[in-house]
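Example S7 (structure tokens).
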């Protein structure tokens, strides 16, 4: 049975993000085909996709290698996220379906419950699922795809500390869903921008050689009234 290239692409990308392949290391078609139990054809297609996404580069005399992003490029990703996530939330307020709202509300309930109980083990995965659903609710496949790629790259380049106040963080998630439910695009945009800005200092570069946090990314968000929006 022929394994589709997108499945191989997902597997290789996940391994790059997880650090199985170090930055700058070679990715030969033969090695990858053997590791994933496929022919070279889907591997070749997967490498082309990953190169377009920025995870892989082709070097003369070396072939495909894992990319080596700079600190400047990594910082750009956080700035892009701070622009695109609020846009996605604003679009979601106008285009979301009841199915999207059901999933978002369920995730907020779970997240707030875990945060109150101090069960932080699965909060990160719940948060990822929340933002993935919010992006899908934007009704824009191109925007959702860009946000998905950003999340993958950020997970690859950064370690992320747990929020200092998980309860407050999930109150912000709840406020976003409330604004999306009411169709208030401007409020959804503002709260999502605030949420993204507050989470930025928790990101630490994996390859910076030091423990410094990311603090060069700055925005000027106007105050957002959060009262009455916590679930």
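Recovered sequence:
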């Amino acid at each position: 049975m022929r394994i589709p290239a997108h499945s191989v692409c997902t597997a290789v990308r996940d391994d790059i993000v997880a650090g199985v392949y170090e930055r700058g290391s070679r990715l030969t078609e033969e090695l990858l085909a053997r590791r994933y139990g496929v022919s070279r054809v889907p591997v070749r297609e997967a490498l082309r996709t990953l190169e377009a996404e920025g995870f892989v580069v082709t070097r003369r005399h070396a072939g495909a290698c894992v990319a080596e992003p700079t600190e400047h490029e990594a910082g750009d990703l956080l700035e892009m996220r701070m622009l695109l996530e609020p846009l996605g939330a604003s679009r979601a307020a106008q285009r979301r379906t009841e199915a999207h709202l059901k999933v978002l509300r369920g995730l907020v309930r779970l997240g707030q419950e875990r945060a109150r109980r101090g069960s932080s083990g699965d909060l990160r995965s719940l948060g990822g699922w929340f933002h993935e659903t919010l992006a899908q609710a934007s009704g824009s496949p191109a925007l959702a795809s860009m946000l998905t790629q950003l999340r993958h790259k950020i997970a690859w380049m950064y370690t992320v500390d747990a929020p200092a106040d998980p309860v407050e963080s999930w109150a912000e998630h709840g406020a976003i869903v409330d604004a999306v439910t009411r169709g208030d695009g401007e409020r959804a945009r503002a709260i999502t921008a605030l949420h993204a800005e507050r989470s930025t200092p928790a990101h630490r570069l994996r390859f910076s050689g030091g423990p410094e946090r990311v603090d060069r990314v700055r925005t000027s968000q106007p105050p957002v009234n959060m009262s009455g929006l916590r679930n």
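Notes on this example. Confidence is low (pLDDT under 50) at residues 210-216.
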